[in-house]
Structure formats: structure tokens, C-alpha cells
């Protein structure tokens, strides 16, 4: 079974919250034709998208053509809206969570859903996570790599991680509001350099801070193969070793990083081999970033091309690990 863990979906009827709430930072979907639209933010083009981003039937056609049995649906990160007043951000989160749950319920043999929560208010975020888990039946939660510039090691977030562990809610961490935005506009470096760097910062913050020591059963998966994190982890460990006054944990960051999961979206068999060698094949989940331009097509190609993997290991990478991470049996 091939399960694409990393895909994004957006409702076609995404409400125009700029008009409703009077702030232009809200993403607005402007339909250009039946097959495509522009995501606009602050009156500027954020991203062009095709109907694949909202049309479940179109997605299923692509899945059948590309040999994918199931997709894990998660929101497009631009909708996280951690900057917004909490009642407005909750409106956006709950609208999407309802839409994803409805899509999964219409096609339970094709889709698994992840929700999102407004992390700028922990009580509201935890309550919405509870609704996603116990009322909507979503399999996990997608969160961003920072909350209004605060890294994920912020003490404010500890209660959220505590409840995610208690309720066994897997977390998918995806870059958003990336670092160095003013230096990565040209060449679309925001997507190719800033996103992997942003993910590395989030992973390093969690590994160094003691979050995994406090909550050892917390399930976390980082997008895009963990970005640059796996490759700079020895340097992070070296920092832990030479600055004992900064230590927050009894063991170096690499010890806690062994608990992390990563999707497979790094395009290169050598990188897949490195992830497996460093963290174990059980911690890598096939993910393509469907339906965006930088996606892997067909999903799982880099795993198929990694020749030294047994069929048993490939089966885990292509689907079995995702099911285990999401606490599912199909």
C-alpha cells in the first residue's frame, strides 16, 4: 500500500476573511478558471494553484494514475494565521478542519485527514485539537515551525505538547513564515533554501530544549525530510558539548532526534539512505507535497530508486510507517 503522507488541500469555498474581518493578511482564493486559481495575500499573488488543490475527484484520478492508494490531507500552511485575533484564527482553523473531515468521510478508502489549530492561544488550540481528535476523527494535527517568531521550544507551548502526547495526537511540522524572508525573494529561494532552514531551526529547538525528554511518547514528523536538520545535527551536538551552560537536557540533541519522524521529500536516493542510516527506516514516511510544483512525481519515486532497500523495508517506507505514525490500522 502506497500512502502519500505529505499532501495539501484547500476548500474552493474558502471564505474571504479579508472582507469579513477587515484585514488583508488573510489568504483569498481567486478563481481564474474551472481548473485553477490564485492564492492572494495582502493583494499580492502568493501562489498559483490548480483544481487539484480542492477537487477530491481530481486528486483520486491522479492517485490512480500515479499508483497512490491513499493521501494524508493537511491544510496549506499559509492558512495557519497565527498572527490573527484568536476568534478569527479559530474560524479559519475550524472551517478547514470541518472541510477535511468531510472530504475524508466522503472517501474513507482514499483519504486520511490532519487538522490545524490556532497556536497563538494555547487553551483554544488544545480545545480545537480535542475536537479534531474526538469529534471529527482526524488522525493528527499540522502545525507551523514557529508561532509569531517564537520557536517551538517556547515554554508557552509545553501544555500543547503535553496534551498531544496524552491524547496520542501525531504532529506534522511544516515550515511557514520562514526566516530571512527579505533575503530569499529572488529565485524562489524561500521555497528551496529558507523552508529547509526554517525546518532545521524548529527541529533543533525541540531536540535541544528538552521537549522530547519531558514528553518521550510525543510523535513529531518534520516536512521535507527534516530540511537541513539531519545534515547539521553533528554541529548541533558539538554546540551542546562545548556550551554546557546552555544544556537543557541530560543527553545531546541527537539522542532526542532519534524519536523524530521525517517525510521522504528530499529528491535524492543518497539523502534517503542518509536518513535511514541516521534515524532508521521506521522513521521515514513517503510524502510528495502534492499538488504543488516542487512535489515528487510520481510519489515515492526516490524510494523506488533506492536500490539497496529490501521489499519489506520499501513497503514500510511507502505506507506502513505512515499508518504506524498515525496510529491507524487499515
From TrEMBL:
It is an enzyme of class 4 (lyase). Pathway: Secondary metabolite metabolism; quinolate metabolism. GO terms for biological process: secondary metabolic process. Keywords: Decarboxylase, Lyase, Metal-binding, Zinc. One of its GO terms (molecular function) is hydrolase activity. Its EC number is 4.1.1.45. One of its GO terms (cellular component) is cytosol. Residues 3-328 form the Amidohydrolase-related domain. The keyword Zinc applies. Belongs to the metallo-dependent hydrolases superfamily. ACMSD family. PANTHER family: 2-AMINO-3-CARBOXYLMUCONATE-6-SEMIALDEHYDE DECARBOXYLASE, 2-AMINO-3-CARBOXYMUCONATE-6-SEMIALDEHYDE DECARBOXYLASE. This is 2-amino-3-carboxymuconate-6-semialdehyde decarboxylase.
Amino acid at each position: 500500500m502506497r500512502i502519500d503522507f505529505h499532501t495539501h488541500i484547500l476548500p474552493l469555498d474558502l471564505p474571504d476573511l479579508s472582507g469579513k474581518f477587515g484585514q488583508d493578511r488573510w489568504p483569498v482564493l481567486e478563481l481564474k478558471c474551472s481548473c485553477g486559481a490564485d492564492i492572494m495575500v495582502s493583494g499580492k499573488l502568493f501562489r498559483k494553484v490548480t483544481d487539484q488543490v480542492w477537487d477530491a475527484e481530481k486528486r483520486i484520478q491522479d492517485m490512480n494514475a500515479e499508483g497512490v492508494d491513499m493521501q494524508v490531507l493537511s491544510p496549506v500552511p499559509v492558512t495557519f494565521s497565527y498572527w490573527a485575533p484568536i476568534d478569527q484564527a479559530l474560524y479559519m482553523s475550524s472551517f478547514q478542519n470541518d472541510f477535511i473531515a468531510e472530504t475524508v468521510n466522503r472517501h474513507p478508502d482514499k483519504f486520511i485527514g490532519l487538522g490545524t489549530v490556532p497556536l497563538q492561544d494555547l487553551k483554544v488550540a488544545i480545545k480545537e485539537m480535542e475536537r479534531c481528535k474526538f469529534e471529527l476523527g482526524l488522525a493528527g494535527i499540522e502545525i507551523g515551525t514557529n508561532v509569531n517568531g517564537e520557536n517551538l521550544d517556547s515554554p508557552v507551548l509545553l501544555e500543547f505538547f503535553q496534551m498531544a502526547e496524552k491524547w496520542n495526537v501525531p504532529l506534522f511540522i511544516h515550515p511557514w513564515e520562514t526566516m530571512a524572508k527579505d533575503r530569499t525573494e529572488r529565485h524562489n529561494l524561500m521555497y528551496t533554501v529558507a523552508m529547509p532552514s526554517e525546518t532545521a531551526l524548529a527541529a533543533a529547538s525541540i531536540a535541544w530544549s528538552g521537549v522530547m525528554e519531558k514528553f518521550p511518547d510525543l510523535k513529531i514528523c518534520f516536512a521535507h525530510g527534516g530540511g537541513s536538520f539531519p545534515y547539521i545535527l553533528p554541529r548541533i551536538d558539538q554546540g551542546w558539548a562545548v556550551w554546557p551552560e546552555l544544556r537543557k537536557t541530560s543527553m545531546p540533541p541527537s539522542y532526542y532526534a532519534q524519536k523524530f519522524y521525517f517525510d521522504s521529500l528530499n529528491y535524492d536516493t543518497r539523502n534517503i539512505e542518509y536518513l535511514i542510516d541516521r534515524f532508521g527506516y521506521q522513521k521515514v514516511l513517503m510524502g510528495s507535497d502534492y499538488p504543488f510544483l516542487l512535489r515528487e512525481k510520481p510519489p515515492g519515486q526516490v524510494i523506488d530508486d533506492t536500490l539497496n532497500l529490501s521489499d519489506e523495508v520499501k513497503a514500510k517506507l511507502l505506507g506502513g510507517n505512515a499508518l504506524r505514525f498515525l496510529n491507524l490500522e487499515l
